[in-house]
Design goal:
mainly alpha, three-stranded antiparallel sheet, 7 strands, 6% strand
Length: 374
């Protein structure tokens, strides 16, 4: 099947030469030399143009919103947050070539495809950082090493893309079906690893986790959607299913899969172990702690109450007259309280809020007491 955003035509058009052999520039048809022209221009039919424009608009709009939210919530000095923002920005440009016309259309598409391929590889690096705390040292090295070893394929893919859209070679029609093999195994492993560790290491049920943290509910749903659209894209590109409803060469499924992968990166900016660790701590301390899910994309406990209690001066026990001269660290007297389990030592004339609410005076000779007891 031809690559996305292109089609193949033959002059003269007696038969569909693409069905005979899509890589030859000249073949023999009934003894006559026929030239095969790679028509890689902008889609002309209304259906193809509409679908491609919608898919690009969907991708660019989604990435732009996620980039703005990520920029607003990222913390200074955190490399992971910067990588996520870079991934989103690089992916946007390949959703704008629909506005151009040949000959700009051809080279602009190929140039923005380079940025898109970098964004895909960067997404796998981000996945490695997020899943790294779950992996042993050898597993982490294997993950990032295998990712580095497939980069020569992307050099070939970029070269084939330029040759194809300049009308010089149809090599891209052969490399395109293998994109998923060199792009997505690391992401699938990351998804499976997260689902496994949620159950085994943190002892969370999936429904329980979604109730505690709606953010993780969005994360898990986006992961499943990204893999679902990935499978559909593979089946469509390899002709395992006949996408007869789509114009030839138009593939919107990879754009949808890419958007949902980016949602997974931006919905939780921190690594998975940090987020899940804080959620588990909340689960264990939910009776005495308050959890807040900040807009930054990380999970944090609201310990303002604890800090306030630690910094606040201890109450002054009026049962001990020596404490009247004790000042706090700010040079102020702490609030007056009384320990009712201890004798008053002559300070019975001082009444605090607790005593007032109970309508009890500390003076044993109080007229009220004698009136009640008399």
């Amino acid at each position: 099947m031809p690559p996305k955003g292109s089609n193949v035509s033959v002059v003269p058009l007696r038969r569909s030469l693409h069905q005979i052999h899509p890589t030859l520039l000249e073949i023999q048809l009934h003894g006559t030399a026929v030239e095969m022209v790679l028509n890689v221009g902008k889609p002309q039919d209304p259906a193809g143009l509409t679908i491609e424009a919608w898919a690009q608009g969907f991708m660019v709009g989604s990435l732009m919103v996620m980039a703005c939210i990520t920029f607003a919530n990222m913390r200074r000095g955190v490399l992971l947050h910067k990588l996520i923002l870079t991934e989103l920005v690089l992916g946007m440009f390949h959703g704008t070539f629909i506005f151009t016309n040949p000959p700009v259309y051809n080279w602009y598409l190929s140039v923005t495809a380079i940025l898109l391929n970098i964004s895909w590889s960067l997404h796998n690096v981000i996945a490695w950082i997020k899943v790294k705390p779950f992996l042993p040292r050898w597993g982490s090295i294997l993950f990032i090493s295998s990712l580095a070893l497939v980069q020569p394929y992307w050099v070939l893919e970029i070269t084939a893309n330029f040759l194809y859209f300049s009308g010089k070679s149809a090599l891209f029609t052969h490399t395109r079906p293998y994109e998923a093999l060199f792009r997505d195994p690391w992401w699938i492993f990351t998804v499976l690893s997260l689902f496994y560790n949620i159950k085994s290491r943190y002892e969370f049920g999936y429904i329980e986790l979604m109730r505690v943290s709606p953010r993780f509910a969005v994360l898990l749903g986006a992961m499943l959607l990204s893999i679902g659209f990935l499978v559909v894209d593979i089946l469509s590109v390899t002709n395992a299913i006949k996408a007869t409803a789509l114009p030839d060469g138009i593939q919107p499924f990879w754009k949808m899969a890419f958007v949902w992968r980016c949602v997974c990166d931006s919905i939780v900016l921190d690594d998975f172990a940090t987020a899940l660790g804080r959620l588990k701590a909340y689960k264990l301390q939910r009776l005495g702690s308050v959890m807040s899910e900040g807009v930054r994309g990380e999970f944090s406990f609201d310990d303002q109450v604890r800090r306030k209690n630690e910094l606040a001066p201890s109450p002054l026990d009026i049962s001990n007259p020596e404490e009247f001269v004790r000042l706090d660290e700010h040079g102020q007297y702490p609030p007056l309280t009384r320990d009712w389990s201890r004798p008053t030592n002559g300070t019975s004339g001082i009444l605090d809020l607790e005593a007032a609410l109970r309508d009890v005076e500390p003076d044993d000779d109080s007229p009220k007491r004698h009136a009640r007891t008399g």
